[in-house]
Design brief:
The protein is α/β, with parallel strands linked by helices and 180 residues long. The chain is built from 5 helices and 7 strands; from the N terminus they run αβββαβαβαββα. It has a 7-stranded mixed beta sheet, with helices on one face.
Length: 180
């Protein structure tokens, strides 16, 4: 009985959060044609990382472009791309960084431990943030994870949002934005 309830809850969670797998990522629709899943500017926030450190919107100030990967611990494509994101983070130019935003983690939740396990197993040691109230509102319109956005040093969302696990597209979009 418990297994059936758990399976039903997981199915509903995936359905309502829109976790995409690679086959669900419609390659015929360019990312630029997709509606922006977030507001135009990252709000002022004070949040905690999955390792317990405090972080604010000042995290964007030191880099020209920040790749923000919005993901969930329940999402197989999100988990599958973690090793590639870790590799990408280690090879970024000095004026760029990656941060993760764990959409299903809340203060004190089991998802924090799960996110730690996932990122450690994937050697993805970039910063992953537990959304506070402001960040939760900021990503409220995200229909699917992973969704990756790009933020400049002023906290403005720039470029095209990429919905679905697509490291190549992340790298291409970042390269365009770094040149500007």
């Amino acid at each position: 009985m418990k297994k059936k309830i758990f399976a039903a809850l997981m199915s509903a969670t995936i359905l309502f959060t829109g976790c995409l797998d690679d086959s669900a990522d419609d390659k015929s629709v360019p990312n630029s044609a997709q509606a922006s899943p977030v507001a135009q500017n990252v709000p002022n926030f004070t949040a905690t990382t999955i390792t317990g450190k405090t972080v604010t919107n000042e995290i964007f100030a030191s880099k020209k472009i920040t790749v923000v990967n919005i993901w969930g611990t329940f999402c197989p494509p999100c988990i599958a791309e973690m090793p590639d994101l870790g590799e990408m983070a280690r090879s970024l130019p000095a004026d760029a960084q990656i941060i993760g935003l764990v959409c299903d983690a809340t203060a004190g939740s089991a998802q924090i431990q799960e996110a730690l396990k996932i990122t450690r197993n994937a050697d993805a040691d970039f910063i992953n943030i537990i959304p506070d109230e402001q960040l939760t509102k900021f990503i409220a319109n995200v229909e699917a994870v992973p969704t990756t956005i790009f933020v400049n040093s002023r906290g403005e969302v720039v470029g095209n949002a990429i919905v679905g696990a697509d490291i190549k597209s992340y790298k291409n979009e970042l390269a365009k934005l770094i040149k500007n």
